[in-house]
Amino acid sequence: MDQVSPWRLVTVHAHPDDEASKGAATIARYAAEGVTCVLVTATGGEEGSLLNPALTDVRPEQLARRRRSELDAAARRAGFAEVVRLGFRDSGMPGSPAGRHPRAFSRVPLLEAARGIVATIRRVRPHVVISYPDDQSSYPHPDHLRVFDATRLALELAADPAALREFGEPWRVPRWAWSLWVSERFERLAEALRAKGVALPWRPERRGQDELVRARVDVRGFVSVAQEVLRAHETQVDPGSGWWFGLDATELEELWPFEDYHVVGAEPGVVLDGLFAGLRAED
Ligand SMILES: [Zn+2]
């Protein structure tokens, strides 16, 4: 069912495939409700490896171009109306030589990193912006840390009438959300995977960011879409991986039918039903 909606959402990610592993079911749900969803991807994922053992013909120099078309296919499947590529280079893991490249996202001046996000916010005028959380100690990839810092600056500048006038009228984004995982989701998933004999890719004692949760999106009916979004990144996922695909969408939705978010400035102790609660009349 296609509905026309005046509601808009922008999500900022570091690499192609991050939009698949973080919040794809949320996007699928809101896109199905008619929300205009725009994806901002900072880098081309140039430092990714070929992780699909079935694709033996892909040469390393072809990877960046492959990842570009994979991102287009994934974004279409998720329901994004548009993909904005900031055009920076993947910084690689901490300490990698890629981090010293002059166009590495984590190395360019912060204002330069934020400019394209400001331009997108002023043009799209989103009601919700999603980024990663301030504390990313469980996965401190330099480009992911930069997504947080650049988004924070972009939200300030987008609202400031005196800043970056070349990008048009100021826009104050009413809601900034951070995508999170809660401990119970880790625990339930770990238990279900263990029962199938699948080795966990994280330490069993890994904790979530439960204390930060302020909104929960019910994604029942959309987890299968999220799995297809992930499969669209065919160089980056092993279709035989038990961790990624050992549980089907029905099993995953039974385990944890939500995606969890922090909402900056929201009252502690209250968990909103969805990212548009209190903004849209129907929520
Ligand atoms: Zn990433």
Q: How would you sum up this structure in a few lines?
A:
The chain is of the alpha/beta class and 283 residues long.
Characteristic key phrases:
globular; binds zinc ion; 283 residues; Rossmann fold; alpha/beta; eight-stranded mixed sheet; 9 helices; 34% helix
How would you describe this protein?
With 283 residues, the chain is an alpha/beta fold. The chain has one domain: LmbE-like (Rossmann fold, 3-Layer(aba) Sandwich), CATH 3.40.50.10320. 34% of the residues lie in helices and 15% in strands. It has nine helices and eight strands. The protein has helices at residues 18-21, 24-32, 63-78, 110-124, 142-159, 183-195, 223-231, 242-245, 249-255, and strands spanning 8-13, 36-43, 82-88, 128-131, 175-180, 215-218, 258-263, 272-273. It has an eight-stranded mixed beta sheet, with helices on both faces. Helix 3 links the parallel strand 2 and strand 3 (82-88). It is globular, with a radius of gyration of 18 Å. The model has no long low-confidence stretch (mean pLDDT 94). Bound molecules: zinc ion.
